[in-house]
Amino acid sequence: MVVIELYGVARLRAGHDHVEVEASSLGEAIQALGARCPALSPHVVEGPRLSPSYLVAVNGRHLTADPDTPLAEGDVVVLLSADAGG
Question: What percent of the chain has pLDDT over 70?
Answer without folding.
Answer: 95
